[in-house]
Structure formats: C-alpha cells, structure tokens
Write a structure and sequence with these properties.
With 686 residues, the protein is α/β, with parallel strands linked by helices. It contains 24 helices and 27 strands. The protein starts with a strand and ends with a strand. Bound molecules: iron/sulfur cluster. Iron/sulfur cluster binds at residues 8, 10-11, 13-15, 38, 42-43, 45-46, 171-173. Its EC number is 1.7.99.4.
Length: 686
C-alpha cells in the first residue's frame, strides 16, 4: 500500500499528511516528515481525520427541493435561474458566497464566472469573517496583501509575541514550533484578554481590556522610539511616514496612560516594552482576536507600524505574521476570491480590469468591488439579491446575527447550496442542493498561512454522484453560455491558467523550493512538492506600491464604549481545541468530541457569585441580537465582566450553544470583517 501525500482538511497551518488507503473508505493518517509546515507532526484533529471519511450524513445526489434529480436537470435549472435573474434584474442581483475550504482551482473558477462572465463582484467568502482585516492592513501598509513571514522565522526569533491568538488550541503545530523555539531560549509574550492554555505557558501574559490593542501597540512603538530602536535608515530609504504620525502616536502613549486604557499592570507593560525594544529578532503573530473587530484593520496596522518603524521586516526572525484560520484562506486571497479584489491581487483599477477581461476573453468585467459578507446577507434580506449560490459553508450558523441570515435565506427566490453534507442549517433553505466531493476525494492546491502551496490529493473516488467543486462551477458556466471559457477537463488546467494570470508561470526567478527540498515541484502538477512563490518579501526594502515604499498608517485608539444597562457584560467567541467550524467533520470522530462535549459559557468567579451562577448549571446568554443556552464554567481565566462561548454548535447538534445568534452585524470600515469579540451581553441562570 503506497502512501499518498496530501494536506490536512482543517486549519491554516497546512500540515502535510501521508495517507494510506487500507480498505473501503478506510485510511491510515500519518504526518508527512517531508512537509515543511509540520515535519511529520499532526495535532489531534489531523490525527483523527481517518475517522471522518465515512459517508454518514453525505449528500450523494443532486436535489431539487426534496426530490432527487440528475446532474443535467439540476445544473440546467441553476444556469437558467441565474441567467433569467440577471436578464431581469442585472448582474448585481445575483451572488456567490464561498469558502476557505475550497481549493484554489475551485476558488479561481468561481471568481472567473462571477467577475468576468456574470459581470458582478458579488462573490465573497467566509474568509471575510476570518482574516480580511489582515488583508486590508497589509494593503494599506505594503500596497498589496502580502504576508511577510514564514514558519522558519519562528525558528529564528528570540522574542515571539502572540496577539489575540490561542495558538495552542487553534494552530497547534505552529504552537509546537513556538515551544521548541522557547525551549532554545526565545521568550514568549501573549496578549489576550483570556488566560488561555497558550497564555498559561507564556513568559508574560498581558490580559488587556478587549479592544485596546491599538493603544498597547502604539505605546510599544513610542517606547521603542524613546529607547532609540526606530530604524531611521530603513524609514528614510523604504517607508513613507505621514506628517502627523509621530505627534499623533505620542498622544496618550506614555506607559501609565496605556496601562490604564488597557487595564494591565504598568510593570507588566513595561516588561513587554523593554523586551520588544531589546530584541531585534521579534516575530509578532496575530489572529482572530485582532482581525474580528470593528477596529480590526487599525489594530493590524498598529502591529505593522511597530515592525516597519523598527525595521523588523524582511529579515530572518523579524516579521509581523498574520496566521489564517482555514486550510485555503490564502489561496482564495491569491486568486482574488474576495468581493474587494478583482483577481490575482489586483484591484478594480481600469488597467487591471482591461487586463483581466482580455486574459479571460470575457464578455464583461465587474466594474467595482462587490458586496462583502455582512452587506451581502443584508441585501439578501432586503430582497436586492435574488439568486444566491453558497459553496462549502454554512452562513446560517457562522454569520453574525445568524437569525436574520436565516430569514434572508428563507425569503430569497432562489438559493443553491453545493456541499458535502446533506442537511445543514443553510441547505434547509436551498431550492437546489448539489453534492460536492469531500476532502480525500478531490484534487487541487491549497496555500497555508506562510504561503506554502501544497497539493491536496484524492484518496477515494467521490461517492454516489458527488463531483469536485471546480467541475460543478464549470458546468454551470458552460450552461450559462460560456462553453469555451469553461472547457476544463482537470484541475491542472485551471492551475496553469491561474499561474499565467498571476505572472508566475515561466518566471523561474520567483519559484522557490522550501528548506529540505532539492527543487520546487510545480512543473509537474501531479508530482508537485510544497513550494512558495517569491523569496523573503521586502528583503530588498522594496514594496509593491507606486513609489516602492511602505507606509506607516496613523492609527489612534478609539474610545471603548461604557457597558450598556441591559447588557453590561462583554461576550467573546472562539474555537475549541478539537472542533472545527460547525462540526460537520469533527463531530464524526468520537475521540474529538470528548475534549468538550457541550458548549460552555466561561464566567469569572466574581460574576458567577454576583449573578447566582453555579459551575455546571445552565445559563442563558443574551445580547441585543438574540439569546442562547449554555452550561456554565466558572473560570479565573476570564476577566471580570467578560464571557466566552464557542462557535461550533448548531441547531442540528444541540439545543443550546447557538453562538451565531448573538454577535451584532457590525463591521470594520476598511475590511468589512465583523466584530465577533466584543458584543454587549447579559447572562442569567435558568
Ligand atoms: Fe491539521 Fe491544523 Fe492540526 Fe495541522 S495544526 S494537523 S493543519 S488541524
């Protein structure tokens, strides 16, 4: 039995797997020792992937309403309804809502169909909920959405700062790498309102007030400047500094003011600032605690400012590092699968639109950015989107104000859901359901958090009538009338086209093998080895802006709102270690369910006493958007006045824990990312 090299289905760490098929829908999973992301290691979720490849709950045939249908009939109906809707109401009356679970080839085709052929940019993705603030922050600072760090930078760092990230649970293999570096002498600082498993093992934990990250990072830069570690030569040569930057930064950035704003001990803050100032090789990793905020982009830029101003970028062990949640969030970014980008990192400038339209030989091209996720579902609810195709995601659970999203789906004249799972909270509202091939059944590429591109490979043939997403999209495109533009027989052809549009193919200078490999393997799609495009970003001090210079962005701490009378607490949301999204896969592995069997609301002991909550009792959490039931866990890891709940449970998995009902649909003004981390809330025992 030969092991097949593929990658994990879950998070953005992008671990390599050696999968050996041992029987009918049976597979042995091992970490791939040759993959540079994990070097043979796997976390609990990856280890138990083999338990999740059964057919329980699978959608195996196309369905029109409650009836089985042939592919021809279902695809013809989808193409006709989209064509008719566009003819009657225009291209902006339709939308796609896609997913970081899609492979790059799937993402590329969905983007091409919507932006080049339908002529709208109404394609957004659940990655909007995950890392779009990092995208907007990178673009403001660097001119393009480029992650300027790799996992090898962690191996070279002397100080590792984790901001808004429970890495030990959410990116376990990155965390093992961090621990190995700490064992060799590096220091670890964790900045997070909660004392998570990650924070417990840090040299220093700053349990800051939620939403005060800009103040904390601006204070770090003011301290660094006073300590003389701002890199004046680098700023002069490579960075544009707005006139008001330093004067604005200095306002309220003294140690005592920042400590008060952030509600942390001045001595702890000073220790962090001194460590940062004294350690040139610093990597700052940030995740959802930064991104999922109504001030997420400013928070990202406060971190990028700190690294740019101290010249800690483009050098080994010195970089800001956005770590992504999903296996292919980065692949989606590369093809332009967000409503706010056109294709291949290009925006909607006239010359880009002309170039992409020419390349695709497309009849039209989207004239402007489309609707971002929260706006998309709001317009769906207002009746302006009249046909929606949801691919590989479950917005009726995962969007903020999920109750309103459900109502919008129920009222939409035509909803298509292509998914692996037969019954989801979203597909309950679908007029047509299309069976998609799952992990282990499809072929393509994914890009992980450090820009390593790897192959996912099929282990089994798709069951029943299931088909890969790229095949479903190209069939709809062909049936809408664009036969030549969507004439693909295999994903390798789509990959090649993506590379040509991105200027990558035939540009060997930008193709890099990874440590431990003798060559980069993109020449042969089938034998492709993990690789990266491009060397160390910004190592030459050149940035992809018009003048080649990066930009410091003036950002100020927004006032933090006083508690509301009826919702005096602050609700935070996040992942558990052994579950993934809405548990459609991890729910199939009994060993994973044991880690946390039900959704808990974590409450500080003082709040529990004051509100008569008992550990193990039930409580109802309420917000201005809705309510849901949880079991209480009294925990000193919470700050007083703050609650934490997990995101995974749905109507189909529990009577409570419907976290999506609780957050408000408020978004960051630059990125459109919703703020999941700070919702006014109440709690009462039941
Ligand atoms: Fe999979 Fe992420 Fe775990 Fe790696 S760290 S095995 S990619 S879930």
């Amino acid at each position: 039995m030969t092991a097949i090299k593929t990658t994990c289905a879950y998070c953005g760490v992008g671990c390599g797997i050696r999968a050996t098929v041992t029987g009918d829908r049976q597979v042995r999973i091992e970490g791939d020792p040759d993959h540079p992301a994990n070097r043979g290691k796997l976390c609990s979720k990856g280890t138990h992937l083999g338990e999740t490849v059964g057919l329980e709950g699978r959608l195996l045939t196309p369905m029109i309403g409650k009836r089985r249908a042939s592919w021809d009939k279902a695809l013809d109906l989808v193409a006709k309804r989209f064509r008719d809707t566009i003819a009657q109401h225009g291209p902006d009356s339709v939308a796609f809502y896609v997913s970081g679970q899609l492979l790059t080839e799937d993402y590329y085709l969905a983007n091409k169909l919507m932006k080049g052929f339908i002529g709208s940019a109404n394609i957004d993705t659940n990655s909007r909920l995950c890392m779009s603030s990092a995208v907007a922050g990178h673009t403001r600072a660097f001119g393009e959405d480029i992650v300027p760090a790799t996992y090898e930078d962690i191996d070279a760092a002397d100080l590792i700062v984790l901001v808004g990230s429970n890495t030990a649970w959410c990116h376990p293999i990155i965390y093992q790498r961090i621990r190995a570096r700490c064992d060799a002498g590096a220091k670890l600082v964790v900045i997070d309102p909660r004392r998570t498993e990650t924070a417990e093992q840090a040299d220093l934990h700053l349990a800051l007030r939620p939403g005060s990250d800009v103040a904390l990072m601006n204070g770090a830069l003011a301290w660094a400047r006073a300590a003389g570690v701002v890199d004046a030569d680098f700023l002069t040569a490579s960075v544009t500094t707005p006139e008001d930057f330093w004067t604005t930064l200095d306002e309220g950035s003294d140690l005592w003011s920042v400590a008060k704003t952030c509600d942390v001990a001045p001595a702890d803050l000073r220790r962090f600032y001194e460590l940062f100032a004294a350690t040139p090789r610093t990597v700052t990793l940030f995740s959802q605690g930064i991104n999922q905020s109504t001030t997420g982009t400013d928070q990202v830029n406060a971190i990028l400012n700190l690294h740019l101003a101290t010249g800690r970028i483009g050098k080994p062990g010195a970089a800001p590092f956005s770590i992504t949640g999903q296996p292919n969030a980065m692949g989606g970014r590369e093809v332009g699968g967000l409503a706010s980008t056109l294709a291949a990192h290009m925006d909607f400038a006239p010359e880009n639109r002309a170039r992409v339209q020419r390349f695709w030989a497309a009849p039209t091209i989207a004239p402007k950015p489309g609707l971002k996720a929260v706006d998309l579902f709001r317009e769906l609810g207002q009746g302006r989107i009249k046909a929606l195709w949801i691919m590989a995601t479950n917005p009726a659970v995962s969007m903020p104000d999920a109750g309103a999203v459900r109502e919008a789906l129920a009222a939409c004249p035509f909803v298509v859901v292509s998914d692996v799972i037969a019954e989801t909270d979203s597909s309950a509202h679908a007029h047509v359901r299309l069976p998609a091939a799952a992990w282990g059944e499809k072929d393509g590429t994914v890009t992980n958090s450090d820009r390593t591109i790897s192959r996912q490979r099929a282990l089994f043939p798709p069951p029943g009538d299931a088909k890969p997403d790229w095949w479903i999209i190209k069939e709809v495109g062909r049936r809408m009338g664009w036969k030549t533009a969507f004439a693909y027989d295999r994903p390798a052809e789509i990959w090649r086209e993506h590379c040509r549009l991105s200027h990558y193919e035939n540009d060997g200078s930008r193709l890099f093998a990874l440590p431990g490999q003798s060559s980069a393997g993109n020449a042969d799609y089938d034998a492709m080895q993990p690789f990266r495009w491009g060397g160390t970003p910004f190592a030459d001090g050149h940035f992809p802006t018009a003048d080649g210079r990066a930009r410091l962005v003036t950002v100020t701490q927004k006032p933090l709102p006083a508690p509301l009378r009826d919702w005096p607490l602050t609700l935070n949301t996040g992942r558990y270690r052994d579950h993934w999204h809405t548990m459609t896969r991890t729910g199939l592995a009994p060993k994973l369910a044991r880690h946390r069997e039900e959704p808990l609301v974590e409450v500080h002991p003082d709040d529990a006493t004051r509100l008569n909550l008992t550990d193990g009792g039930l409580a109802r959490v309420g917000t201005p958007q809705g309510t849901s039931l949880y079991r209480v866990s009294v925990s000193t890891g919470q700050r007083p006045g703050e609650l934490f709940v997990p995101i995974h449970w749905t109507d189909r998995t529990a009577t409570g824990g419907r976290t999506g009902l609780l957050p408000r649909p408020l978004t960051d003004p630059y990125s459109g990312q919703p703020g999941f981390k700070r919702t006014p809330a109440s709690i009462a025992a039941v």
